[in-house]
Design goal:
The complex is a heterodimer of chains A (170) and B (358). Chain A has 170 residues and is mostly helical. In chain A, 75% of the residues lie in helices and 0% in strands. Chain B has one domain. The model of chain B has no long low-confidence stretch (mean pLDDT 83). The chains are: A mainly alpha (170), B mainly alpha (358). Chains A and B meet through α2 and α3 of A and α4 and α5 of B.
Chain lengths: 170, 358
């Protein structure tokens, strides 16, 4: 039953992910990315992580992607035909090699993590796994330091954005 | 298993029937009639069948026939696929929110537990919020796909307005869940059995901010800058006709019902009657026998819930026909400079009070 939901969901997810990379028009890429995130939220729900799934939709699909679309639309006001396409990428050899190496590194790390992971280990899934209460408790006890550091990081980024924008206006 | 499935299907059809088949068409008539009364006009009374007008109720049928038979027009240079997709993205979230809204409590009928909510999610309140944020795309994409500058401007305004007011909405919700200690809408509803524990008395400021933010999310007057007729023709749906326009039109009315329902559950005691606990009501109905008494109680609760929802729909309509449209910069100022600090203060005060009581 679980697999019956997982495979179509994962398949559509990969199709959307490919759509992000292959699409010529930025707006279609953005829409594919939203579709991919929604499918990913579905996979999270399948893993009993309801809270993470909903946050995925609220934050990534709901808030960040709207801003992406906003920016794409503003930059693309005259978008018709050829103007609609991405600017042709520079064939900078160094850049290509570096980004290729980066992608290969991430892929290697991912595969090694997947190989080490223990799937379906019952110790990980307790009764209340993934509920808001459980996630909150873990976040404020075991992982309180990373949690607070991350929030300070966001605050700094926010102030930085305001300062940068303000210095241009004044 | 089969019985559960049947009960769930009945609930789904009930909700779709109430929102799409009943509320959406009837509200178009109510809106016309109320605007007529408030502006001292006779109002919708022209559509008749054999000279019989039924107070203008046939206008809803005339609307439906018109929408179904009108030409579906897609402007030149528009993105055909996205142009068709966006009204669908707009209308589905409006209906989907009802999946987690409880329209009654839990009842035991003939040995079967009936929980009057389609899906009792652990993250119910956040689900509502997530669905609301998805709805933005319908409006944003529609303007872009229309290949029309008025539409695009409308979409831009929609996006910025909806993002701004989502912040307030999210922060107000935090106040509510601090008071009730749960994200489950059924638990929040059940916790308000006592009249003085209604969310409105716990979070008076939260109620007004939530209602303001949700009307802004629905883009109705006074927050209808995205479709401002006098500036942007019709905003994001300028290039829509026929049934696709109908979907945008319908989603606005369905969202009004949704807002009414959410406000009722969070702030106005959900299905409870003031000063009349369910136990007392049940003891009055005891002469019917346990099962029938429970059934009658269930029907009463559903009636009470929708009566409250109708009150909030009326409230939203009264606001719509009372206030003029805010200017775009006023909307932004209200969202970021007034509502955002107020909602943060609300969380702080709520926290201090809860700490003091404990």
């Amino acid at each position: 039953m679980e697999l019956l939901i997982f495979y179509p969901l994962a398949g559509i997810c990969i199709l959307f992910a490919l759509g992000v990379v292959i699409n010529n028009s930025p707006i279609n890429s953005a829409i594919s990315l939203i579709g991919m995130m929604l499918c990913l939220a579905g996979v999270f729900i399948l893993q009993q992580a309801h809270f993470i799934a909903v946050l995925q939709i609220i934050i990534y699909a709901g808030a960040i992607m709207v801003l992406f679309m906003f920016v794409i639309m503003l930059l693309n006001l005259k978008g018709k035909g050829e103007d609609d396409k991405w600017q042709s990428r520079d064939n900078n050899l160094l850049l290509n090699v570096l980004s290729g190496l980066l992608a290969a590194g991430i892929l290697y790390k991912l595969i090694s993590i997947i190989n080490e992971a223990k799937f379906n280990s019952p110790a990980l899934t307790s009764e209340n796994f993934g509920t808001v209460r459980e996630v909150g408790t873990i976040l404020f006890t075991e992982f309180v330091l990373p949690f607070e550091v991350a929030s300070i990081l966001l605050l700094v980024a926010m102030i930085g954005a305001v300062v940068l924008a303000k210095s241009k206006v004044d | 298993m089969l019985l559960e499935l049947i009960i769930t299907l009945v609930k789904v059809f009930f909700i779709i029937g109430v929102t799409v088949v009943f509320f959406a068409p009837v509200l178009t008539w109510v809106e016309r009639k109320q605007s007529a009364i408030m502006q001292d006009r006779v109002g919708a009374n022209r559509a008749d069948i054999l000279g019989f007008t039924a107070l203008g109720l046939f206008h809803a049928i005339a609307d439906a026939i018109k929408m179904f038979t009108k030409e579906d027009f897609i402007p030149q240079g528009a993105n055909r696929f996205l142009h068709t997709l966006s009204p669908i993205i707009a209308v589905i979230p409006a209906i989907l929110t009802f999946a987690v809204v409880p329209f009654g409590g839990q009842y035991e009928l003939w040995g079967t537990k009936v929980n009057l909510v389609i899906s009792d999610l652990d993250v119910g309140l956040l689900f509502v919020f997530a669905i609301a944020s998805i709805a933005t795309y319908g409006y944003v994409i529609s303007g872009w796909a229309s290949n029309n500058n008025w539409s695009l401007l409308g979409s831009m305004r929609t996006a910025s307005q909806m993002i701004s007011y989502e912040v307030t909405m999210g922060l107000t919700i935090i106040g509510v869940l601090m008071v009730f200690g749960s994200l489950k809408l059924t638990e929040i509803g059940a916790a308000q059995e006592d009249f003085l524990s209604w969310g409105f008395f716990m979070q008076p400021l939260g109620f007004f901010m939530f209602l303001t933010a949700s009307i802004a999310e629905n883009k109705r007057i006074p927050f209808d800058a995205p479709e401002a007729e006098s500036e942007l023709v019709a905003g994001y749906f300028t290039e829509y006709s026929g049934l696709k326009f109908g979907m945008f039109f319908m989603s606005e009315f369905i969202e009004m019902v949704t807002i009414g329902a959410i406000v009722t559950v969070l702030f106005f005691g959900a299905w409870h009657i003031p000063f009349l606990p369910s136990a007392t009501l049940l003891s009055w109905l005891d002469f019917l026998g346990t099962n029938w008494a429970n059934l009658v109680l269930m029907l009463i609760h559903i009636g009470v819930f929708f009566a409250k929802v109708i009150f909030f729909i009326w409230f939203q309509m009264t606001i719509r026909w009372t206030l003029p449209r805010f200017r775009y910069d006023q909307i932004m100022k209200l969202g970021w400079k007034i509502l955002l600090p107020l909602s943060l203060a609300n969380i702080l005060i709520t926290g201090i009070v809860i700490l003091a009581i404990n």
